[in-house]
Amino acid sequence: MNAVVIAVGSEMLGPGRRDTNAEWLIARLIDLGIETTWRAIVDDDVSRIERLTRAAWGEAGLVVITGGLGPTEDDRTREAVARAMDVPLVRDPEMVERIHARFARLGRVPGPRQAIQADRPDGAEWIDNPLGSAPGIWLGGDGRALAVLPGVPAEMKAMFDASIADRLGASGAGSLARTILKIAGRPESYVDDRVRDLYATPGTQTTILAGSGIVELIVVARGADAHAARARMEEVSGAMRERLGADLFGHDHDTLASIVGGLLVSRKATVATAESCTAGLLGAALTDVPGSSAWYRGGLVCYADDLKLSLAGVGAGTLRDHGAVSEEVSRELAAGARARCAADFGLGITGIAGPGGGSDAKPVGTVHVALDDGAEGRAVKLNWPGDRALIRRRAVVTALDLLRRRLIA
Predict the structure, then answer these.
(1) For residue range 270-284, what is the model confidence (pLDDT) as tens digits?
(2) Where on the phi/psi map is residue 374: left (φ > 0), alpha (ψ -120 to 50), or beta?
(3) pLDDT by residue (tens digit) across 189-229?
């Protein structure tokens, strides 16, 4: 069985919004041996939802739709699904009573539109919602199924695990196993060249993704059962790990910061930061990791040149002779962070994130990152294209990877 996942909601099409429901569903479906062949996000227009539902139903064994089941005017998924299935939308009096009873238990009075949550395509079953008022919808037959779930993540997840997973458990042709290998410090083309021939391994599929200085290899393997699928996945991912060596920093839910934190803990070591163009983003990435107080001492944000002098101890002559964006300043920022925060390691970042401020000698995207360990230290110069946010994210990734490689050396 293959699946299509559709997210409904105009808000999902705004900038900076991720469809985390679909990401979660795709991972859970893999656990059940079901591969998702495509996914879509659509606004609250009933005609467009209908067309997408028809297309998905026409080619997939399973269609999962999230969103648009509330009581407001823009919640049109029920209507669209009924139209796509060529059946009328009918109101269930028993569900109306259940919705009213739930509101009464909470000491609330249902609004006049709450009853539309009791509408369902004729012939559909209800999917119980233990956390909210909007029930889900299940349509099945001829070896196919369509599930409609609320867009609220907690409700969607609880309903899927409680009511849908068991129905689908025997639907996949065999089992799937999935892992994500994470690589830092190398471009996508380099990683692809190292492992490309392994993409053709029978029973597996590999996808390569790149962004903000990190490359991901998503390996999915199919087997007759869970053990066989995992063994095949481990065979391919193991070969990739061997080829990638120290460039590989983690897998699945690992982050560079969490890996760095674990390495620091194992060495009973600490780190401090001094940042100019990233203005605290490196410190924020490190402290996103629970327990980081055990190994992150603190940081200095030295955006202005006078603060590079007074806070981090950068030499006035260094600034005069080399400029604020230079290897020399990045090294002194790192040394100042280590010394003034009493840490074992210091990281320093200085650069031009843009969109202005560049020159022929130092164009936008020029960033210097340095590590100080009390000995010789290390420094890296970057010059990447991209917008301000991308340049700063890449600088943070580079600093974390610089420390990681020092800790595993």
Answers:
(1) 999 999 999 999 999
(2) left
(3) 999 999 999 999 999 999 999 988 999 999 999 898 889 99
User: What is the rounded distance in angstroms from the CA atom of residue 14 to the CA atom of residue 119?
Assistant: 29
Looking at the fold, whether 181 and 196 belong to one and the same domain comes out as yes
Are residues 219 and 87 part of one domain? no
**Is there a single domain that holds both residue 161 and residue 20?**
yes
Give the structural domain span for 53.
Answer: 2-168
The most distant pair of C-alpha atoms in the chain lies apart, rounded to whole Å, by: 81
- 139 and 7, same structural domain? yes
Residue labelled with tokens 């309903």: 159
What residues contact 79, with CB distance under 8 A and at least 6 apart?
46, 89, 119
Q: What is the mean pLDDT of residues 371-394?
A: 94
Supply the pLDDT for residue 354.
Answer: 94
Banded pLDDT at 292 (limits 50, 70, 90): very high
Task: Answer yes or no: do 183 and 234 share one domain.
Answer: yes
Question: What CA–CA distance (Å, rounded) separates 26 from 37?
Answer: 10
User: Do 189 and 72 share a domain, yes or no?
Assistant: no
Task: Report the candidate in 356, 353, 180 with the shortest Cα–Cα distance to residue 276.
Answer: 353
Residues 124 and 47 in one domain: yes
* pTM greater than 0.70: yes
Q: Which residues make Cβ contacts (< 8 Å) with residue 262, sequence separation at least 6?
A: none
- Asked if omega into 15 is within 30° of 0 (cis), the reply is no
